[in-house]
Design brief:
The protein has 1164 residues and is mostly helical. The protein has a four-stranded antiparallel beta sheet. Strands 8-7-10-9 form a four-stranded mixed beta sheet. Helix 4 (142-163) packs antiparallel against helix 5. InterPro entries: DHC, Dynein_heavy_tail. Residues 922-944 are annotated as: Disordered. This is Dynein heavy chain, N-terminal region 1-domain-containing protein.
Length: 1164
């Protein structure tokens, strides 16, 4: 809206009418027309040609004439926007009326106000008229009205009142502040209305054609579409331009809503809440219209005409989506906001409850709703204003000064609790606001709320204290105390009535009005109250002096003082009792004398001594505390006098004497000499924390023992020093340091004593278990190194340590290395103890397993289970990092080797006995039959496991068989040797194949890098026999094999029965009958081998079965024997015949020769 080019001044200085001017002639309308012609163009932006319709209207002259005469004080020029628009150019119409009406089409309204009842045509109209521009259109009038009041009317009124500041008229003084207050209220109300922005209703303009098409489609029950519009219109540019123009107007109308905002710092909290809730409803209404069929059809028409400029960015241009999103988020806080609980509260309890609900809601919802903290702070301030108004309204309804004091006290206490609730709630809100401000990374703003109820809080606090003092005065002047009756009897004033009248002055004002004017009224009334109360105080002072004058002793005086003690807070009454100091001094002297008697009984004879012992107070500190209590009691008496008589009482003569006596007694109560004597005793005894940390103590039974060099008696020292410091004594630096040393050293000394005791017990355990000594040697050496290190430490080294040294970082090792030593020593010894106890338990398990190796069953499973138990224990030792584990395991392995070697020797002897046993022939025979039957069915040899409790050498059956006229042994003798050796190896292998215990199974990676490979089994035990134990079973095997070979060889000789040819034998024997006779003898002798009823030959662990070849060999043998016998018979027959012939021939020849001829001849 355009402003006038030149402001029209408002004539007059005080706004009053200059008087009634009687018109001499009728008012000329043309003057008013000329005035408007000059005024309207610059003020409301009217064009001269546009004003022609206004001036030419039929009722213009009549309206102006009525305005110029009496009965009408104002006339309005209305500038109204024409609804018809041509090509986007707005046109306006102007109307002159005496009745003002508000309409949305009103662009501007100019009010012309007469300053005189009747317009004088002879005077300029500019001096007779005020004009006021009242804006219209879419804007609310609140801003304009607020500007008029705050920037025009109120400053002008203030300037006028300020120019008359010297006038002291009471009536005008009481009226002007009230007027100012009304102006301020009006300004504030207009500001609230201005901030309580009304959300304008948005109605989207729909083209009549579109509206008609939609209505027809709906009447048909079909969905509207652009097909319902005539095709010519869809391509008509005028129609499309109109639609496009309507869409642009929609955007402007919607933007007017989406861009709405308000200043939360002004107005009430309900305005802020209602604004966002109303804005949400308005945005929802807009969205509903945008989803209507009319709007959708318009958009389809524009898209069909490819006018994407209006459709594509429509939603983005309106800002509807962003505004809706923000409003929805903000309304998470605004919805269900319990502000009405505060605004509708009718008592203090509900106000307090509403505060808890409001801040609980704010703190809870602010965490989920992104309501800005910069808006939340003014919102809380607005809540504070509402809270202030509501609390004032409730308190005003109670009429505080009219209520009884008990009710008043209860109400004000409750009010204080309400303010405390506000403060507590504000702390919670402030914490939440700071936290959310950091999380949201919002721009930093100070989290500070200026509550509007501060002045009310201060006024109620002052009012509570003032009413309390008044109540004390009213009680003291009441009939129960008797002061008021006495005053009337002696001709004085009625104090009770006077106090009531003084109180009436305060009851007539609004005590809760904390404005500037209200404060001035409060001060004036309070001064009037104080004037009346001063007369009552004078009367009370007179009555109090009378009673003190009639008191017989100081106790009665103090009784009077105690009775009227409530009034001593008033300085005037307090100063009236200073003349009675002499009597009080005498009373105090008696009290001091009783204190003397109490002091003479001595501390050790008093009950305080026994109580001090019960409370662990050392002797010196207990005595000093006892003396201090007496001194405090003396000072209490002195303070009692000072409280009654006032400061400076010792300046009087009697006061000086009492002061001297008390000072002398205080000197007697001085505990400094006792303290000095104690210091001398401490210095003489030479106590201190020094010397080495450890000491070596000789035992009575011989030997030495490690001990801690610490005197427990020094504990009393730091207890004394601690209490003396509490009592304020200046303990010498040396003794203080000594006490500090004792205090600091004591916990470490106790720790060291416990550690040394634990160390000694652990060494005893190691001594009683020598076998584990190697394993814990490292930990024991570490403990010994710590002891060796501690031998060089002295208690003096702990002096420079502080109590907070435990919190010193480890980097400052120089400062806390001695305390660190105590902890390290305790840790090392604790580790030694834990490791020792642990290894003892493990060693017991290992020892039990090792012992069981000597008695367990001779089976692989039994030995393996025990060795696995031992190995598991060793692995635990390895994992726990015990030292010398390799050497210790080597020694343990030697023990195991000895046990296993013994078991191995025993088992070899058993094997030899079993191998060489031949007496259980029946058993072996039965077993032989079973094995023979199995072997016949399955000729493959099978390995047989040794069973627990049945260690025996399995017998082997060899069959002498003939096949294809070949005699052979099945299986061969080598199988027997192999089987026996295998069985021997199995027996021995139960031990030798056991996995040897290892100490470094967890260091296998390092062993792989080593050049040597350790033995993993006990096979090397076979080289440990010192005698022929191992050779003996093999010798038995070889002997048995040799026996088998000899026996089997006899059977194998019968192979020749099939291999040899008779002629070859006969030719070989030739004609020598001796050879034939020898062969027959051997044949007969060899026949005993197979010519028997037995079918097998037993050699103990081996059986030769010859049943299969026995008959065949016998038959073949018989055949050979028969052939040889026949041939031998033939040979013998021939030989006999030849011999007979020879004999006959020789006989014949002999018979023919003489004896002489035979001498010397050769002999045959």
């Amino acid at each position: 809206m355009e402003l006038p080019l030149t402001p029209v001044p408002v004539n007059g200085t005080n706004g009053h009418h200059d008087g009634l001017l009687e018109p001499t002639t009728q008012f000329d309308v043309s003057l008013f027309r000329s005035y408007l012609s000059a005024l309207l163009p610059p003020v409301i932006g009217a064009l001269p040609e546009e004003l022609d319709d206004l001036f030419e209207s039929e009722d213009f002259d009549e309206t102006v004439s009525k305005f110029a005469g009496e009965g009408s004080d104002v006339i309005y020029v209305v500038k109204r926007r024409d609804d018809l628009e041509d090509e986007g150019v707005s046109t306006f119409k102007y109307q002159l009326t005496t009745q003002l009406a508000y309409h949305v089409s009103n662009a501007t309204t100019l009010a012309l106000i007469k300053r005189t009842p009747i317009l004088d045509p002879t005077a300029p109209l500019s001096s007779q008229l005020h004009f006021l521009n009242l804006f219209g259109g879419e804007e609310t009038p609140y801003e304009s009205l607020h500007a008029v009041v705050s920037c025009g009317v109120k400053p002008w009124f203030d300037a006028f009142v300020g120019s008359r500041g010297g006038v002291k008229d009471n009536d005008s003084k009481m009226g002007i502040p009230m007027t100012k207050k009304k102006f301020a209220e009006l300004e504030l109300s207009l500001l609230h209305l201005q901030q309580n922005v009304e959300i304008p209703e948005t109605h989207l303009i729909i083209h009549p054609v579109i509206q008609k098409a939609v209505e027809q489609a709906q009447a048909k029950g079909s969905r509207p579409s652009i097909n319902d519009i005539p095709p010519k219109l869809l391509s008509d540019s005028s129609f499309l331009n109109a639609l496009h123009s309507h869409v642009n107007q929609w955007i402007k109308s919607i933007q007017a809503v989406t861009k709405l905002s308000r200043d939360v710092s002004s107005g009430t909290a309900s305005q802020e809440i209602n604004f966002w809730l109303s804005l949400e409803r308005a945005l929802e209404g807009i969205e509903t219209q945008l989803r209507s069929e009319d709007v959708l059809m318009i958009m389809d028409c524009l898209r069909n005409a490819k006018r994407y400029h209006a459709t594509v960015s429509f939603i983005a241009d309106t800002g509807l989506k962003e505004a809706t999103d923000i409003v929805h988020k903000y309304n998470q806080l605004m919805k269900d906001f319990p502000l009405n609980e505060l605004l509708s509260a009718t008592d203090l309890d509900k106000i307090q409850e509403s505060l808890v609900l409001i801040f609980g809601h704010i703190n809870r919802k602010l965490r989920v709703a992104p309501y800005p903290i910069r808006r939340a702070l003014p919102l809380v301030e607005a809540i504070s204003r509402d809270f202030n108004e509501q609390l004032t309204r409730v308190l005003t309804s109670h009429r505080l000064l009219y209520t009884p004091y008990d009710t008043f006290e209860r109400l004000l206490t409750q009010v204080m609790n309400i303010f405390r609730t506000w403060d507590d709630s504000m702390k919670g809100f402030t914490d939440v606001a700071r936290e959310l401000s950091r999380k949201r990374s919002e721009k930093f703003i100070p989290i500070k709320v200026v509550p509007a109820h501060d002045k009310l809080q201060e006024r109620t606090r002052y009012l509570k204290e003032w009413r309390k003092q008044h109540e004390q005065l009213a009680v003291m002047t009441g009939p129960t105390k008797g002061l008021g009756v006495v005053g009337i009897e002696v001709g004085g004033i009625d104090m009770e009535e006077e106090v009531k009248e003084a109180y009436e002055v305060m009851k007539r004002i609004d005590v809760l009005d904390v404005s500037v004017e209200g404060t001035e009224i409060w001060v004036t009334a309070e001064n009037a109250y104080n004037e009346r109360v001063a007369r009552v105080e004078n009367q009370i002072i007179a009555r109090l002096r009378d009673r003190l004058g009639t008191a017989r002793n100081a106790n009665e005086m103090f009784r009077v003082f105690s009775k009227f003690n409530a009034l001593f807070v008033r300085p005037k009454i307090r100063g009236a009792i200073q003349e009675y100091q002499t009597q009080l001094i005498d009373t105090v002297k008696e009290d001091i004398k009783r204190l003397h008697d109490k002091f003479k009984t001595q501390y050790r004879s008093s009950e305080a001594y026994h109580m001090a012992q019960m409370r662990d107070l050392p002797p010196l500190a207990g005595a000093i505390i006892w003396a201090r209590q007496i001194e405090n009691q003396l000072l209490t008496y002195m303070k009692r006098v000072e409280d009654v008589l006032g400061k400076g009482w010792e300046l009087y003569a009697e006061g000086q004497k009492l002061q001297a006596e008390s000072t002398a007694f205080v000197r007697k109560l001085d505990t400094r000499p006792v303290f000095d004597a104690w210091l001398q005793d401490i210095n003489r005894r030479g106590m201190g924390v020094n010397g080495r940390l450890f000491e070596i103590v000789r035992l009575r039974g011989g030997g030495y023992q490690l001990a801690v060099n610490f005197d427990p008696q020094i504990i009393t020292l730091f207890k004394e020093v601690r209490n003396l410091l509490w009592l304020g004594f200046q303990v010498p630096h040396g003794i203080t340091n000594m006490a500090k040393d004792a205090k600091r050293v004591y916990p470490h000394a106790v720790s060291l004593m416990e550690t040394v005791r634990m160390y000694g017990q652990t060494l005893d355990l190691v001594e009683n278990n020598k076998d584990i000594e190697w394993l814990v040697a490292e930990y024991r050496n570490e403990s010994q190194r710590m002891v060796s290190r501690g031998m060089n430490i002295r208690w003096d080294h702990f002096v420079s340590q502080y109590d907070g040294s435990r919190y010193i970082p480890s980097s400052e090792a120089r400062d806390n290395r001695h305390i660190q030593f105590v902890r390290e020593f305790a840790s090392v010894v604790s580790v030694l103890q834990d490791k020792t106890n642990n290894v003892i338990d493990l060693y017991k398990e290992i020892s039990r397993a090792v012992d069981d190796l000597s008695t367990c069953s001779y089976t692989t499973e039994a030995f393996t289970e025990l060795l696995n138990q031992i190995q598991a224990a060793i692995d635990r030792l390895n994992l726990e990092g015990y030292a010398n584990l390799e050497h210790w395991v080597a020694e343990l392995d030697k023990k195991i080797e000895l046990i296993l070697l013994k078991r191995l020797t025993q088992i070899i002897l058993v094997w030899c006995a079993e191998f060489d046993r031949t007496d259980d022939a029946d058993t072996r025979r039965d077993h032989t039959r079973e094995v023979s039957s199995k072997r016949r069915s399955d000729k493959r040899p099978k390995d047989e496991k040794f069973l627990e409790g049945h260690m025996a050498v399995k017998p082997i059956i060899h069959e002498i068989r003939i096949q294809n006229q070949v005699i052979f042994l099945d299986p061969p003798i080598e199988y027997a040797r192999q089987s026996w050796v295998r069985q021997l190896h199995d027996w021995i292998g139960v031990v030798c194949r056991l996995r040897r215990i290892q100490s470094s199974r967890y260091e296998i990676g390092l062993q792989m890098q080593s050049a040597t490979v350790s033995e993993t089994t006990y096979t090397s035990l076979l080289t440990r026999f010192t005698d022929n134990t191992l050779q003996h079973p093999f010798a038995l095997i070889e002997n048995k094999v040799q026996q088998l070979k000899e026996y089997v060889g006899k059977w194998l000789q019968f192979q020749s029965l099939w291999d040899l040819e008779a002629e070859y034998v006969f030719n070989r024997l030739g004609d020598s009958l001796a050879n034939w006779q020898q062969l027959l003898t051997e044949i007969k002798k060899a026949r005993s081998t197979f010519d028997t009823s037995e079918t097998q030959k037993s050699f103990g662990v081996c059986i030769i079965d010859y049943e299969q070849v026995q008959s065949r060999v016998n038959a073949k043998y018989d055949a050979w024997q028969r052939d040889i016998m026949n041939r031998f018979g033939a040979k013998l027959s021939v030989a006999m015949k030849e011999m007979h012939a020879a004999i006959l021939k020789a006989r014949n020849e002999l018979e023919h020769h003489s004896i002489e001829g035979l001498v010397g001849g050769p002999r045959f």
